[in-house]
Amino acid sequence: MRFGGKSVAVLGGNSGIGLAAARAFQHEGARVAVTGRDEAKLAQVAAETGLLTVRSDLADVRDSQQALSRIAAALGGLDTLFVNAGVGGFAAVPEVTEQFWDGVHSVNLRGAFFATQAALPYLRDGGSIVVTGSIGAVLALAGNAVYAAAKAGLRAVTRTLAVELLPRRIRVNMVSPGPIDTEIFKRGADPQQIEALRNHMRSAVPMKRMGEPEEVARAVLFLASEEASFITGVDLYVDGGCVEL
Fold first, then answer.
1. Integer Cα distance of 108 and 154 in angstroms
2. Most distant CA pair in the chain: distance in Å?
3. Which residues contact 226 (CB under 8 A, 6 or more apart)?
4. pLDDT of 188
5. In the chain, alpha helices (H)
6. Residue 185: its pLDDT value, please?
7. Helix (H) or strand (E) run with residue 7 in it
8. Is 147 a known active-site residue?
9. Could you say which of 87, 104, 130, 137 has the lowest number of CB atoms within 10 Å?
10. How is the chain split into domains, by residue range?
11. Cβ neighbours of 164 (radius 10 Å)
C-alpha cells in the first residue's frame, strides 16, 4: 500500500495506460481522480471502479484549471499528478499543416504544460509528478516530426520543472513507452490491418512483443512512490529495449 492515504490525479485516465495506472494507484490505497474527454468512457470507469471522474479536455487550458480545482477540492489536495493525456498522428514534413501541428501540440505540449502549472498550487511539498513521454522523441521515424517535437519539448519541460521544484521536494519524472497494446488496437474496420500493424511493431521491438498498459503503469507507480525518493528528472523508457538495444 505505497499510496495509502495519498491523493492522485490522472489526467487522461479513462483508457489505456492512464486507466491502468489509476487502477493501480487505487489498488495501493490512493484516492484517485481521472480526467478524459469521452463522457461515456468516464461514466463506465466511474461505474466499474468508483473513481472520481471529471470531463476535461487537455487542449483547453481553462478546462484543465477548472478540473484540477474540482479534483483538489474533492480529494483534499494532491500528492501525485500523472499527466498522461495525449494525441498522435503521422505526417511527412511537406504534408504538415498548421492545423495538424496545433492539434498535436495543443494537447501534448501546450496542454500538458499548463495543466501541470495549474496543479502546482494543489500539490503538497514532497509530492511527485509523472509525465508520459514517448520514445518517438528520441528515435528518428519518418512522418513523426510533429509528435516527436511535442514530446521532446515536454521532456525539456519535465527536466526544467524538476529543477524548479527541488526546494519543494517535489520530484518530476517522465515515463516514455514504446509500442503498447492499448485500445487503439482493439477497434477499427479492418482486423487484418490492425494485426499487420501489431506484427510490424512486434518485429521492431528487441523483446519481440508489444508492451501492456499495466507494464507502463508499474513504472509510473515506481516513479511516483517513495521507492524512487532519490530520482528526479529522469526519462524512463518502457519500450522492450527499442532505444537502448
1. 7
2. 53
3. 2
4. 58
5. 16-27, 39-49, 61-75, 98-105, 112-119, 145-164, 191-204, 213-224
6. 62
7. strand 7-11
8. yes
9. 87
10. 7-182+213-235
11. 11
The cell for 199 is 506484427
Backbone φ and ψ for 115, nearest 5 degrees, come out as -65, -40
Dihedral (Cα; 79, 110, 131, 32), 10-degree rounding: 40
The answer to whether residues 75 and 58 touch, using CB atoms and an 8 Å cutoff, is: no
Q: What pLDDT does 101 receive?
A: 98
Q: What angle do CA 179, 184, 187 make, to 5 degrees?
A: 140
Cell reading at 189: 474496420
Count other C-beta atoms under 10 Å from residue 168's C-beta: 13
Residue type, 173: N
Other beta carbons within 10 Å of 147: 22
Which residues, listed in sequence order, are joined to residue 9 by a DSSP beta bridge? Answer: 33, 81
What pLDDT does 193 receive? 76
Among 82, 113, 147, 237, which one carries the catalytic annotation? 147
Q: What is the pTM of this model?
A: 0.96
Give pLDDT, residue 191: 77
> 108: which 3 cell numbers?
501534448
**CA dihedral (48, 54, 55, 57) positive or negative:** negative
211: left (phi over 0), alpha (psi -120 to 50) or beta: beta
Predicted pLDDT of residue 187:
60
All cell numbers assigned to 100: 495538424
**pLDDT score of 194:** 79
CATH class of 7-182+213-235: alpha beta
